[in-house]
């Protein structure tokens, strides 16, 4: 059974995610962005991903570094979503095989 604090945390994260998405739409929905601003908006998902993953890879564990190498290689070949999936799966498999 799920604990109340866990359920409230999940609900809070969902509300926060929704508010940030709808807030961006409401603030920028009718505006025309410059090419520079558009380019910046295009790279934000990758920047957020890096900021979440970087501390794990700075640990110096060989499995994490190998997972990072696989992810970087995948990033040179595929789009963001397949690259994320490859990075998550490869790092998980490496951690399971080489504890």
Automatic annotation (TrEMBL):
Transmembrane residues, as ranges? 6-28, 40-58
Q: Which domain of life is it from?
A: Bacteria
Q: Which InterPro entries match?
A: Brnchd-chn_aa_trnsp_AzlD
Which keywords annotate this record? Membrane, Transmembrane, Transmembrane helix
Name of the protein this chain belongs to: AzlD family protein
Task: Name the source organism.
Answer: Neokomagataea anthophila
The root-end lineage is: Bacteria, Pseudomonadati, Pseudomonadota, Alphaproteobacteria, Acetobacterales
